[in-house]
Amino acid sequence: MLKSVAVLLALAGALSACHAPDAPSASTTRIPADIRAEAPGFELPRLNVVIEADPPPPFTYWAPEGAVIRNHGNAGVWVAYLDGRNIPTYFGDECRASELQRFVGQPLSAVPPPAEGIVIRTSCTTCAVNDDLQRNRVNVVFDEASERVVSIACY
Fold first, then answer.
1. Angstrom distance (rounded) from CA 110 to CA 127
2. Using an 8 Å Cβ cutoff, are 60 and 69 in contact?
3. pLDDT tens digits for 85-119?
4. Measured between alpha carbons, how far is 15 from 10 in angstroms, rounded to an integer?
5. Fold adopted by 2-154
6. pLDDT digits (tens, 9 = 90+) for 119-154
7. What is the rounded CA–CA span in Å between residue 79 and residue 53?
């Protein structure tokens, strides 16, 4: 287990230092069990995205509308492209962001404290944040004027 965590942490560091490939990967590596996401107890929104990834990610809440989702080339890592640009990267739901999707559109104050072992980072849509990837960090992005949650994702 510690070896797989070390490998995934090294992978996260490598991802923050490079751009994803422009073409989809031919990788068909199975998703490791420790980053598979279980379905939450409620319906997640269905986004208008194109899935070119094989295997597909377990959730697409992290991708913007109209994005194309492709494999990154590393097991269990996906990239969303919009207008030919790499937008977000997804590497699992360890931060349990899928369980918090019902708070998108709600006031920031409605978001509950994080579960044990989860780190929460809040930032406004125009705020600068580090682009380091942390599997246990849930990022809550809010609109500064209305203080309403815009997105919640692991990164």
1. 20
2. yes
3. 988 888 889 899 999 999 999 999 999 999 999 99
4. 9
5. Trypsin Inhibitor V; Chain A (3.30.10)
6. 999 999 999 998 788 889 999 999 999 999 999 998
7. 9
